[in-house]
Design a protein that fits this description.
The structure is a single chain. This protein has 955 residues and is an alpha+beta fold. Helices cover 40% and strands 18% of the residues. The chain is built from 30 helices and 23 strands. Helix 1 crosses helix 4 and helix 25 packs across helix 26. The radius of gyration is 29 Å and the shape is globular. The N terminus and C terminus are likely disordered.
């Protein structure tokens, strides 16, 4: 089922073959033990460390510096300083000047953001590095930088003033409806605790004005060795990693008279609290009940068992709620239950719902009734057995890949272990716990855990709603509704539909096609099979993971072959199937049927192609083939599915334009596409034009025959397997006897230079958009060169707009080069900024872009691009995801498969001249668009251009 709703909830958005032998006896009180492959220790000065050798991927090491101090210990006049200190770590240390830090990592092929980053939260600040493992000097230098972040920041005054602006822009970027809701909810959520007024983003006025001395004081107080843990995981021996940590970090002096950490307090909740927040920029209503709990430690086998039972309870409850959301006239559009651990000592169980318009009270009643039904009657034996089977199968399949867990996954889990004082269990240990504990769990235990998770009525009720929502009671009436919803009436036990019949129709198994052709496409083992019905299968067996198969099927045509009048229905065709099901199974029943399998297939119809995408474990490969075939021959189109889909789309369309960002996006699309409505965003006009019979017809037309489809499989597959399943499930699919081509329907890029301005929004923030586009003639290596040009633009604009001018937290760079059905390109740039700086920063962006047409690219930038390309291919070529996406790309583009592995040829093409030629092809000073989104109450500056007039060409 497609989840269309992003939850407007508490907005804490920071940044954050199995063994067949008998299972051994585990006593409930036995302590859980950290994976024995992890070495740990503490230096004499108090710095603790954790290291692990892991060669997935090869030639990479993950490093973390965990400082167990975030925003909570800030003094009142320091709110926001923990985050500012984190930023200043990248602005110079005692031995490394500002330009030596990020520049150094980029010149060894590691990108700022994905591989070089940091974050600040309530209780911690964490620095992250990913580095190559093939050069001992890189490891030594990286450890030295990590160590100097720990105790040798210099807080250069000039750099500090620049970075204040960057942090303010990060704060500004977060302003909006979610922030306004959060600011109302957090004080209630953490009432009586320091967390209530210590959000990591801090107070912008303090960030602007706090003295350098107070910033340095926070650094001295809380960046202490006993509060630090260094983690190193990767393709190096544990001894080498340990020795580097000891040699580098032992030089940090031990603390003398350390300041005590402040008490965080305990939550104050004397009764139930109701908070209703209305906001003009909220697009749909939500209601959420939360229940405070003390955090139960994960120390023993019994603790682990309880968490397994909780997972079962949430899974069953969510499945039941999903059924209600897919009713023919749903009273709520989505609902979900779960648990949060937002801070180390406390967590919340919650149940969230998005009521259908005008149905708030009945929707709230329905959600609470389902919770109450499960609390009273528990779960059925079939639900229990399905949960057990699912959990055991999922763990078994994860265990099969136990030697393929990435170093990044291990490292992030170790960070969690440090922060929450929980052991990090090996997959062997977890597999043992599952096999021993899961079979003995009873339905009564699941029922009891659910009652424990939701005792009484909860402690908080948060309701958020559009300002004009007329069906929301006031807070007193909400409290009364909360008190009685789901109680005081007889509730029948849940009854489940029969899921015993087979997923795939047995009568179709009598049919079988055959392979009519085979050829090898590359030295990498990529093989093409031609099927008797005209379909093509591409196989790329790999050994990167033991139990992973990735799948894509594609065919030319897409919505480009649909009339404008039919397009609204075409845009809903795939969702219609997804909301209806396959072969008589509705979406929830289908999910239950497949719950113990690791498999997923999703159909799609895009502008120029239609197809399917999916994945599976090696063992579930046949089910992947079955699902693929069913999307051709047995899709469902039900009245219930259409009704549920329309309820969602009407809600999304009705209030979408309440958000300034959506209005701005509409304006940009209007500039780009004019009256071509099919390229505009969802609105009520489009929803009203949707017709279920047309949507069904278009889906069936797009998937009428498989003879012009290419089916691509990458991963843990053998040719023998694929041949067998392809003959059984793909070669029997219908053939229509024609090869389609997509039509050219996208309007040309607007001529000339155009700017438009929109004023909307309550917050003091602006957004700037700049776009280029046009026709393109595709030549050899153009797709790769275009990608490198985009990376260059990202580097240059970060330096020009963020670093030099402090104008924005970051510039988003997007772009597409397409050769089908016609050659075209687009480049798009967008960033947020302080109101009043739109003109200055637009000119700065254009000046930087135009300069690339005339000036050679600096040698340092070339080195960065070349090394990042080389290193990304080095790791990518060990990865199924990289191989599969690139294989599908080159097949669709008609490129030779050899370009995937031809790293050296591409490196010789990343030159100053080729990049300047890219700029001249794709950056036209006389042909671009720009748009500004200003706050509703902002007055245009006198020196700014009036709305609608072109931007003058920058020098």
């Amino acid at each position: 089922m497609i989840k269309r709703f992003a939850y407007i909830t508490v907005a804490v958005l920071f940044f954050f073959t199995a063994c067949e032998t008998a299972a051994p006896v585990l006593t409930a009180g036995r302590e859980l033990v950290t994976d024995e492959r992890i070495s740990t220790g503490t230096l004499e000065n108090g710095v603790s460390w954790m290291v692990m050798e892991n060669n997935e991927p090869q030639n990479r090491i993950q490093l973390r510096l965990v400082v167990r101090a975030g925003s909570v210990p800030e003094d009142d006049d320091q709110r926001g300083i923990a985050h500012l200190v984190e930023h200043m770590a990248f602005k110079g240390t005692k031995s490394f000047a500002k330009e030596d830090l990020v520049d150094y990592f980029e010149t060894i092929g590691m990108a700022f953001g994905p591989e070089v980053n940091a974050y600040t939260s309530f209780d911690e600040t964490v620095y992250k590095l990913e580095i190559p493992a093939d050069d001992p000097a890189i490891l030594a230098r990286s450890m030295a930088i990590l160590r100097e972040w720990a105790d040798s920041l210099v807080f250069d005054p000039a750099e500090l003033e620049k970075e204040r602006s960057i942090v303010i822009e990060e704060w500004r970027q977060g302003l909006g409806a979610n922030q306004r809701v959060r600011d109302r909810q957090i004080p209630l959520l953490f009432r009586g605790m320091a967390y209530a007024d210590r959000l990591p983003i801090g107070d912008p006025e303090i960030v602007r004005t706090v003295s350098r001395e107070r910033i340095m004081q926070f650094y001295r107080d809380w960046y202490r060795p006993e509060l630090m843990t260094v983690i190193a995981v990767g393709d190096a021996s544990a001894e080498i990693l340990r020795d580097h940590i000891a040699e580098t970090f032992s030089a940090i002096p031990a603390s003398v008279s350390p300041r005590g950490k402040p008490e965080t307090g305990s939550p104050v909740h004397t009764g139930r609290d109701v908070l209703l927040v209305r906001d003009p920029e909220i697009t749909y209503t939500t209601a959420q009940i939360l229940q405070h709990h003390d955090m139960q430690p994960l120390k023993t086998v019994n603790d682990y068992r309880r968490r397994l039972i909780e997972a079962m309870a949430f899974s069953v409850l969510n499945s039941r709620l999903s059924e209600k959301a897919l009713a023919s006239d749903p009273v709520f559009l989505a609902a979900e239950a779960g648990s949060w651990q937002l801070i180390p000592d406390m967590r919340f169980s919650w149940i969230w719902t998005a009521p259908s318009p005008e149905k708030f009270s009945v929707a709230f009643e329905e959600a609470m009734t389902e919770l109450e039904r499960m609390k009273r009657h528990g779960i059925t034996e079939s639900e229990l057995e399905r949960q057990k089977t699912t959990m055991l199968e999922q763990m078994r399949k994860a265990w099969l890949d136990r030697d393929k867990v990435s170093s990044a996954a291990h490292t992030d889990a170790l960070v969690h272990s440090v922060l929450y004082s929980e052991p990090y269990l090996s997959l062997d240990a977890r597999n043992e716990l599952y096999r021993t504990l899961v079979p003995g769990i009873s339905s009564g235990e699941v029922q009891q855990v659910l009652q424990d998770l939701y005792p009484g009525r909860g402690t908080l009720l948060f309701v958020t709603a559009p300002e004009n929502a007329a069906d929301i009671p006031d807070e007193a009436a909400l409290a009364a509704l909360w008190e009685k919803a789901g109680t005081g009436k007889e509730l029948a036990a849940y009854e489940e539909a029969d899921l015993g019949r087979p997923l795939y129709p047995p009568e179709l198994l009598a049919e079988r096609g055959h392979i009519v052709g085979r050829k090898e496409l590359s030295d990498d083992g990529i093989v093409q099979l031609d099927l008797s019905n005209g379909a093509t299968v591409i196989i790329h067996p790999t050994d990167f993971r033991e139990n992973e198969v990735l799948f894509t099927a594609y065919s030319r045509g897409g919505t480009s072959l649909v009339s404008d009048g039919d397009f609204p229905s075409a845009s809903a065709a795939v969702d219609y199937v997804e909301y209806s099901g396959l072969n008589g199974f509705d979406p929830v029943s289908l999910q239950k049927k497949l719950s113990s399998n690791s498999v997923s297939v999703t159909p799609w119809i895009e502008e120029s192609y239609e197809g399917l995408s999916g994945n599976s474990s090696a063992e579930d490969l046949e089910i992947l083939f079955q699902l693929t075939a069913l999307y051709f021959v047995r899709p469902e189109f039900t009245e219930t599915g259409w009704s549920a889909l329309m309820a969602q789309l009407r809600t999304l369309a009705a209030n979408r334009r309440s958000k300034p960002d959506e209005q701005f996006n509409d304006m940009i699309r209007d500039i780009l596409y004019g009256d071509a409505k099919r390229f505009h965003n969802l609105d009520m006009e489009r929803v009203a034009a949707m017709d279920p019979s047309v949507a069904e017809r278009i889906y069936r037309e797009r998937f009428a025959g498989a003879d012009d489809f290419v089916f691509v499989f990458t991963g843990s597959v053998s040719e023998e397997q694929v041949v067998s399943f392809a003959e059984q499930y793909l070669a029997i699919l219908p053939a229509v006897g024609k090869k389609e081509d997509a039509s050219v329907i996208r309007p040309p890029f607007p001529e000339g230079s155009t700017r438009r301005t929109l004023q909307s929004g309550l917050e003091p923030k602006s957004t700037v958009f700049v776009g280029f586009g046009g026709d393109a003639v595709i030549r050899d290596y153009d797709f790769e060169l275009f990608s490198q040009f985009r990376l260059l633009l990202d580097l240059r604009l970060r330096e020009a707009i963020r670093e030099a001018l402090g104008g924005s937290y970051g510039v988003w760079v997007g772009g597409i080069l397409s050769g089908y059905p016609d050659g075209r390109f687009s480049l798009q740039f967008q960033f947020g900024c302080e109101p009043g700086r739109e003109e200055e920063l637009t000119r700065a962006v254009l000046a930087e872009l135009f300069s690339l047409r005339e000036k050679p690219v600096a040698e340092t930038d070339l080195v960065k691009l070349q090394e990042q390309y080389r290193r990304s291919r080095e790791s990518g070529l060990q990865n199924n995801g990289f191989w599969h996406s690139r294989l599908v790309q080159v097949l669709m583009r008609g490129e030779p498969i050899s370009v995937i592995t031809d790293t050296d040829s591409m490196l010789t093409r990343i030159t100053a001249e080729t990049l300047r030629e890219q700029a001249r092809r794709y950056i036209n000073p006389d042909n671009h668009i720009s748009g500004w989104l200003l706050p509703a109450d902002q007055t245009l500056r006198e020196e700014g251009q009036p709305a609608g007039e072109p931007v003058p060409a920058a020098p």
